Amino acid sequence: MGNSIQLFKKHAPQLLDKIYKKASTTSDFDMDSALVQAGKNTNEIIVPVLDMDGLGDYDRNSGYVDGDVSLTNETKKFNYERGRKLKTDAIDDEETGGAILGNLSAEFLRNKVVPEVDAVRYATYAAIPGISKVEEGVTLETGEAAYKAIAKAWDDMTNDEVPEENRHLRITSTILGSIRDMDNYKSKELLNKFASIKTVPQSRFQTKIELLSGKDADGERKGGFKKVADQYVLTTDTTIDSNKKYYTKSGETYTEVISPAVENIATYYEKIEGSRDINFMIIHKPALLQYTKHNKMKIFTPEQDQDGDNYKWLYRLYGLNEYYNNKVAGIYLSHKK
Predict the structure, then answer these.
(1) Total of domains in the chain
(2) Are 110 and 200 in contact (CB under 8 A)?
(3) Are residues 80 and 31 in the same domain?
């Protein structure tokens, strides 16, 4: 088994990268590491932002009007760090013919790491202020409705001067299937415009998620992530805000107040929206700052285990899921109510 361990350690980086790229629906958005500069602190990177003046009048006597080109830097802090230690008894591995040792790392990445990484990224990008969204109330119950929503999103992005190349469509399999079932020229033409199309399992396609600690003390031993439920909190308003919805509570039921009255405002609740299923996202890759600084898996043999007779895996992931402040038009979101 010693030779197998050494072989694993030698090829682990390539194995991790291969599995990640195949299983992830967000790997296409990873940025070129050549653009990344280390910040002053270890928990940040610096990314360049280029800006320039537009055209001015040309004078046949004096010629060109002076303009400026500026290269500024945005500092972004790494915002995603997770890890896990797993172990398996040496005898258990021997009795399964080495199956545990051979499969654990690959299965852990496919079934635990990649779904969470995708979920974190989609939830992060869905929460970016100022991104474009399908109008509230629009449902995608038919292929025609879904086609129209995506076509409008495409046109809206074009009108916002988002370059057409490098736009990627992420969508649920049900909605994509309904569009493909139309089987006509216009639907095929629209889908063919995208640089890539990938279906995303609904469990990792949410507007919000909660990361679980993986600690017994929190009752979250299994770790991973989960959907976030709607929450209601007493309002702190002292006057009625016409842009808000207020609710009253009876038992465990919350009911929207149709005609809020200021004299009752102290009894009103506001809803903090939880997770919503995402229908589709269109992402222009240059809008994102997606970078993994550290993605390592280490393995220790039973001979190195001072507390038992186990093989141990230590996995750590550290990275950035962010965006360029001046490119939010490059992200378009549709989600259920």
Answers:
(1) 2
(2) no
(3) yes
Residue 41 belongs to a domain: yes
- Residues 83 and 115 both lie in one domain: yes
Half-sphere exposure of 23 (CA within 13 A, CB side): 21
Lookup: tokens for 134? 């399908």
Q: How far is CA 238 from each of CA 241, 264, 322, rounded to the nearest angstrom? A: 9, 10, 36
Share of the chain above pLDDT 90, in %: 62
- Give 111's DSSP letter: I
Q: Which amino acid is at 113?
A: V
Element containing residue 193 per DSSP (H, E): none
Sequential DSSP letters for 215-256? -GGGT-TT-SEE----EEEE---SS--TTS--EEEETTEEEE
Domain that holds residue 255: 231-272
Write out the two tokens for 64: 């060109």
Least confident of 11-20, 108-117, 232-241, 281-290: 11-20
